[in-house]
TrEMBL record:
InterPro entries: HAD-like_sf (IPR036412), HAD-SF_hydro_IIB (IPR006379), HAD_sf (IPR023214), PGPase (IPR006382). This is Phosphoglycolate phosphatase. Catalyzes the dephosphorylation of 2-phosphoglycolate. Substrate binds at residue 150. It comes from Halolamina pelagica.
Amino acid sequence: MVPPLALDIDGTLTTPEHTIAPRAFPLLAEWDAPVVIATGKAFPYPVALCQFAGIPERVVAENGGVALADGELRYAGDPERVDAAVEAFEERGGTLGWDGVDTINRWRETEVAVSRTADEALLREVAAEFDLEFVDSGYAFHLTTPGVSKGAALAGVAEVLGYDPSEFVAVGDSENDASTFETVGESYAVANADETATRAADHTLDRGYVDGTLDALRAVRDAETE
Ligand SMILES: O=C(O)COP(=O)(O)O
Ligand SMILES: [Mg+2]
């Protein structure tokens, strides 16, 4: 039997051009164990990805703030504290940095994502003041509640699915995946992964982005079926 999977989206299931690679879909749809999409993105994004990939909606979103598996929806974190921090950031001249309609945060319920072009020093200062974690996914800065993480949420999802977290194999690319890597039994950092993710992972892949992820999944599958 193949192991259950925890897969990050940005930098892991995407191409260097930030697009989802549909060539990953058949492997995911045919995977003979649960596939959990674990992302920093707001809840609707991984849900839509599951729908379009043809897999059940098993999702960790918002860096662990929201988790859904087999009809069970769980929330974690302190959204009021995050809102207060955003208010302070904006009062001091900071902007979230998303042009036009902010579709990055519009459906976000438990944390905030800020453009990496925003004032990082000010955002770090506000995070410290409001006792929030500053997380850099490589795609956005996030302010999250301490104790909330993809890994912690994945442990809850594993329980719902009837697995031990150590049975999971994970692939990811950035510091918001380190908690996942610490939670699962076997972890892979794609070649484009940041230092934190690479250090936390059991293996580093030769190729980056979705190509590296597909290499890892094929190797895991082939090892199980040998
Ligand atoms: O939302 C982000 O900043 C990055 O998303 P990811 O966790 O799927 O890489
Ligand atoms: Mg990522």
